[in-house]
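Dear support,

Our group has been running a series of protein-ligand predictions, and this particular one with zinc ion is the one our PI (initials K.S.) wants archived with full inputs and outputs. We had some confusion internally about which version of the output was final, so please treat the block below as the authoritative record. The input we submitted was:
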Amino acid sequence: MKKIEFVFQENPETGKLYEITEGVFWFPMPLPMMGPDYVNCYILEDGQEIALVDTGVNMGDCKSIWENMLLRNFPNKKVSKIFVTHHHPDHIGLAGWLCEKYSTEMICSRTAYLMAKMLSLDVHEKVSSSTELFWRQAGMSREMLEEKLKARPFNFGDGVSPLDKGYIRVSENEMTTINGVNWTVRMGNGHAPEHATFWSNELNLVLAGDQVLAGISSNLGVYPMEPNADTVGDWIISCEKFLEVASDAHIVLPGHGRPFSGLPQRLVQLIENHKSALKRIKEDLKAGPKTAVELFKTIFKRDINKREYMLALHEAVGHVNHLCKTGLVNRNIRQDGAYIYEIKSN
Ligand SMILES: [Zn+2]
Ligand SMILES: [Zn+2]
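Confirmed final output from the archive:
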């Protein structure tokens, strides 16, 4: 198995276009919000037209960055297809605006469309009672809980332009053709439900979205909508499925960070990282029961700062849910309403 190697040695400049291979371009967009430095969009030439993959978030000057780049590099080409890998705002954020502007439809999985549409309409001025309950059950600190309850919650629509049109569905193993090249659709889960990835064995390219990243690990968050979701289990199954078709020849075009090769190696690492976190949790719980938040240090092997707290909370719940689902750990309710997890004694 080949080790992971980046195709570009330097970090990219956002708003600039980089050629991956003939007719395939990488377009890193700034992310005017917390999280990774930039989100990757891709542009694929399709004869006299172009196809876009992922769109960036609807914030700051991202719209004019798109307009300037398209005008500068593809002045005579029509945007005919807009692929979206998954429903997160950094990927779907400008899809509605681009579809409207270029009179076209978004192409994505059914779940990605339904999630995005539902969350766009689910607007809250205050934290909902189900969200508050979820945070309390995860064992959120009193200080953080008070702060979160005071602030207006982030609404999905704050970073996503309206999705007024319908969509075109892509499904598992479906083939889509761009510029005469076939791309196979493969769905992943765990980071986002029914996350589409696109594989071309002819070009040896994989448009991976956030399903496979090199430098950082994709967040496997559980949210109040589905509080018992087994995101970690779903993620491991997806990585194992991709491992069957991944090759050292593939260049991965990820949702964040630089394109890279060494896909089989990266998938093995991703599986191992989570399996070893699960093992550490089991060891730790032998000393006594803990809440999801009390397991931060065990899972992430470092202190979690305030900025990372929420992502860590959602992912910690993902890990304990997996251990509950596989029957290794019991979940009970503590007096303060937090769930505590304890190792099952056989
Ligand atoms: Zn994502
Ligand atoms: Zn992302």
